[in-house]
Design goal:
25% of the residues lie in helices and 28% in strands. The chain is α/β, with parallel strands linked by helices.
């Protein structure tokens, strides 16, 4: 079973539908035991960084996420789910994120006639042998909806970048942590392949 963390954020149902389409059982859940027994865990969502962190904490899902990472269960953050993995965001000054990865979440700079939020299709530059992008052509197009973007601190964790007003670190990978600023569940066949690559990962979960 694939656990999709349910913390009352937007865009969760579409992720469940994409996983089901790929032939896997998906369940939106807040239940710690269900999450810890799952094959994979996904943190999707759109919305405000600070509000999302407050909801994660209110459901005690922040601690569950730490336990999932510690147990080495493959974990995927999508859009806001990527941003929450970091320490803080310009969107919510003073609100701490999960702090699992190092980097800054900044507002996309305006100017040049570009609209903020960034909504639409952009091509990716894939770095090295990024796990999520195996079997995809060079510079695949994916769908973005966001006003804030990641600048990762560690170059070796950057899996893909794009450019919209500034260089955006669009995907990161470290150990059992994977994350995308774009929406694979809304990115057609390319997005389905990315999700399929995640679902096909071997679990290295530690026995409790």
């Amino acid at each position: 079973m694939i656990a999709i963390l349910d913390y009352d954020a937007g865009n969760i149902k579409s992720v469940e539908k994409a996983i089901t389409y790929l032939g896997k059982e998906a369940k939106m859940t807040k239940d710690r035991d269900e999450i810890m027994r799952s094959e994979k865990v996904i943190l999707p969502g759109v919305g405000n960084f600070g509000d999302a962190m407050k909801r994660l904490k209110s459901y005690r899902l922040d601690q569950v996420i730490y336990d999932v990472i510690d147990k080495k269960i493959p974990f995927l953050g999508i859009c806001l789910g990527l941003q929450l993995l970091y320490e803080s965001s310009d969107e919510s000054p003073g609100e701490c994120g999960l702090g699992l990865l190092k980097g800054t979440i900044n507002r996309i700079p305006g100017g040049g006639g570009l609209k903020i939020p960034h909504m639409g299709w952009n091509s990716l530059e894939i770095k090295g042998k990024a796990t999520l992008f195996k079997g995809l052509p060079a510079n695949p197009y994916v769908y973005f909806v966001h006003s804030y973007y990641l600048q990762a601190e560690r170059e070796e964790e950057i899996a893909a970048t794009t450019y919209y007003s500034t260089l955006i670190h669009a995907s990161v990978e470290r150990d059992n942590i994977f994350a995308c600023q774009f929406h694979p569940e809304k990115s057609g066949s390319v997005g389905l392949k990315i999700l399929e690559n995640f679902l096909s990962l071997d679990s290295t979960a530690k026995e409790e």
